[in-house]
Amino acid sequence: MTTTTYPTRTTMPCLICETKNPADALLCDECGAPMALIQEAVAQNRDPSIVTVLGESNVGKTVYLGMLLDMLSKHVDDYEAIPKGAYSVNLQHTVISYLAARQFPPKTAVEVDDWHWAYYQVSHKHRGSSIYDLVMPDMAGEAIAAEVANPKTFRVIRSLLEKSVGAILLVDGALAATGSPQPDFFALKLLSYLDGIVARKKGEKIKAPVAVVLSKGDHCPECFDDPRGFARTNLNRLWNICQSRFENYEFFATSVVGALGYGTDADGSVVQYPLHTAPRGIIEPYEWVLSAL
Amino acid sequence: MHVVRGGAFDTYFESQVTAEFRTGQIALARTHNTGFRCAMDLCDATWINGD
């Protein structure tokens, strides 16, 4: 990977879309990404690797990402993760605080300036001295859906995907297990969109690693036994596009919540509560993406 | 839904791993982290074998 030397003048390029912004700007004028990202990249003097977590609304992106960052911070599986900037900790802080109180975190806002961005320096104690600077935004599923349906609605998503070295695609395994075609179609749309952005030459397969993660595995324990088999059976369209357009992909299953309880809120709407937290399969997809970089 | 008492090997939060902690599972749930431990050998359960 080449290292870019960033100018230390009155303007700075956005790390995501490369639009020049005033050096003291908090957010990029063009795409809304925090300018703190580029300031950290300048301090590191090396390009960070962007790993994007994708998925439709309500699939569990925020909970997965928050739990992943917390586990990395706690040195699970001998990983070490150091947040670069206090803003990076906000996502993990929010998710863990809510789960500990047996609640789910609020839905991620559609507005880009309300998204959480996490910039971590990750290394592994026993696997050489490789250090990865990882930028992982927590994007709203509705924004992803809008961008996929009408490209350039959320320019930041397109710019992010163009810059990403790998992606984690979350697919609702519980919904797929009930026979619903919705997760399959959304994943198909998303990978087709990704194919359109990333593919360099016609017919050439995409080399960037894509981990397809079946979320809410506590509702469909069978997806842990054989994630590939589960995808082939229940997410056949997704399975086919992976085979034909992606060179480097793998299927995983994950769950964060051990058991769900149901209640009603003040409006009488049904609300889900995480009765206890027992993460499973959180690190594995991430570890695989890192190993494939 | 049935009550599950205590935490398991993979419970994430310390506050949820104590013996007093209560969670739940649907009656037919089969999970890798819910089980029971026998507090007595079968041969000591005299009311079962009629001794």
- Could you give the order of the helices and strands of chain A? EEHEHEHEEHHEHHEHHHEEEH
**Integer average pLDDT of chain A:** 85
Assembly type of the chains comes to: heterodimer
CA distance, first residue to last residue of chain B:
36 Å
Of all protein chain pairs, which has the greatest interface, and how many residues does each chain bring to it?
A-B, 13 and 19 residues
- Low-pLDDT windows of residues of chain A: none
Description:
The complex is a heterodimer of chains A (293) and B (51). By secondary structure, chain A is of the alpha/beta class. Chain A has eleven helices and eleven strands. In chain A, the strands form three sheets. Chain A has a seven-stranded mixed beta sheet, sandwiched between helices. In chain A, strands 1-2 form a two-stranded antiparallel ribbon. Chain A has a two-stranded antiparallel sheet with strand order 10-11. In chain A, strand 10 (255-264) and strand 11 (270-280) form a beta hairpin. In chain A, helix 4 (141-149) crosses helix 7 (182-198) and helix 7 (182-198) packs parallel to helix 10. With 51 residues, chain B is mainly β. In chain B, 8% of the residues lie in helices and 16% in strands. Chain B is built from one helix and two strands; from the N terminus they run ββα. Chain B has one helix at residues 46-49, and strands spanning 2-5, 22-25. In chain B, strands 1-2 form a two-stranded antiparallel sheet. The model of chain B has no long low-confidence stretch (mean pLDDT 86). Chains A and B meet through strand 10 and strand 11 of A and strand 2 of B.
Primary descriptors:
heterodimer, A: 293 residues, alpha/beta, Rossmann fold, 2 domains, two-stranded antiparallel sheet, 11 helices, 11 strands, B: 51 residues, mainly beta, two-stranded antiparallel ribbon, 1 helix, 16% strand, elongated
Layout of helices and strands:
The complex is a heterodimer of chains A (293) and B (51).
Chain A: E1 11-13, E2 20-22, H1 36-44, E3 49-54, H2 61-73, E4 79-83, H3 89-100, E5 116-124, E6 131-138, H4 141-149, H5 155-163, E7 164-172, H6 173-177, H7 182-198, E8 210-215, H8 222-225, H9 227-234, H10 236-245, E9 249-253, E10 255-264, E11 270-280, H11 283-292
Parallel strand pairs in A: 3-6, 3-7, 7-8, 8-9
Antiparallel strand pairs in A: 1-2, 4-5, 5-6, 10-11
Helix pairs in contact in A: 2-3, 4-7, 7-10, 9-10
Chain B: E1 2-5, E2 22-25, H1 46-49
Antiparallel strand pairs in B: 1-2
